[in-house]
Amino acid sequence: MTARILDGRAVSAAMLERVRREVAEFVDAYDRTPTLVTVLVGDDPASHTYVRMKANRCAKVGMDSRRVELDATISTETLVSRLRELSADAGVDGILLQHPVPDHIDERAAFEAIDPSKDVDGVTRTSFATMAFDEGGFRSATPGGIMALLNAYEVPLAGKHAVVVGRSPILGKPVGMLLLARDATVTYCHSRTADLADRLAEADVVVAAVGRPEMIRGDWIKPGAVVVDAGYADNTGDVEYAAAAEKASFITPVPGGVGPMTIATLLAQTVGAARDHEATR
C-alpha cells in the first residue's frame, strides 16, 4: 500500500480563493478592509519567517495586516497591556500572538489578554471552551486546518479510533476535541506514554503533534490508517514519513501538509471576525 497524499497546499489554495472573494464582498459592503495584527516578541528567525508568510498571504487575499514587534526583554505586564490595547482598537479584527514567546513571559496570561472576538488563532480559554462544547467561536488554527484538510478528502471519522500524540493547549488538546465532535473515539498520548507503539497500532487516525522529529516510527502505523503530521523541524515531521507512507491510506507531507492549512484557517477566521464585528456595531 502507498498512501494518498493529503495535499495541504492545494486545499489551502482553494480556501484562500474563497477568502479572497469574501474579503472583496466585505469591502464592498462595509467600505473597509479586514485587518489582522500579528504580535512578535523577540528575534526568533523562524517566528519572523512565519509572520512574513502570514503577511504575504493577507496581501494576496486583499486583507490588511499590521505587524507589532516587541523587544525580547519586555515583561508579561507590558505585553498584556499591548494586547489589551489592540483588543480595544475598533480597526483590528484579528490578533495573533506569534508562538513561542521568550521563556520569561507568561504565555497563558498573554493569550488571555486577547479579546475572544478577535482570537482568530483560537488560543484563549474562551475559544477552547466554545469549540469543545460545539458552540461556535474560533477554532485553534492548526487543529481547524487539520479538520478542513480531512474534510476536503472526505476522510471518514465517525466510529474511528483516533490517537492524538501531543497535549499542547493550542494543538493536541483542541484537535482531540474536534475529532470527538465528529464521533471519533479519541485517545491522547504524549512523549511519556509508555506503550505508544501499542496505542498507535490500534489507531485508524493518527495526529502527530508532539514536536519530536521522527519520534513515531513507520512500522508502528496500522495498515490503512490516516496519518496527519503536525510536527515540523528542519523539513522533518514527527512521523518517519517514508515508512509510514507504505502502510497508511492517507498521509500529510512535511512540509506542504498541515502548515498551509493553518494560515488559510487563520485568514478565514479573520474575515469571519470582521463580519461579526460589523454585525454588532
Automatic annotation (TrEMBL):
Residues 6-121 form the Tetrahydrofolate dehydrogenase/cyclohydrolase catalytic domain. GO terms for biological process: L-histidine biosynthetic process; methionine biosynthetic process; purine nucleotide biosynthetic process; tetrahydrofolate interconversion. One of its GO terms (molecular function) is methenyltetrahydrofolate cyclohydrolase activity. Its EC number is 1.5.1.5, 3.5.4.9. Keywords: Amino-acid biosynthesis, Histidine biosynthesis, Hydrolase, Methionine biosynthesis, Multifunctional enzyme, NADP, One-carbon metabolism, Oxidoreductase, Purine biosynthesis. Belongs to the tetrahydrofolate dehydrogenase/cyclohydrolase family. The keyword Calcium does not apply. Residues 140-276 form the Tetrahydrofolate dehydrogenase/cyclohydrolase NAD(P)-binding domain. It catalyses: (6R)-5,10-methylene-5,6,7,8-tetrahydrofolate + NADP(+) = (6R)-5,10-methenyltetrahydrofolate + NADPH; (6R)-5,10-methenyltetrahydrofolate + H2O = (6R)-10-formyltetrahydrofolate + H(+). NADP(+) binds at G166, R167, S168. Homodimer. This is Bifunctional protein FolD. Pathway: One-carbon metabolism; tetrahydrofolate interconversion. The keyword Transcription regulation does not apply. Pfam families: THF_DHG_CYH, THF_DHG_CYH_C.
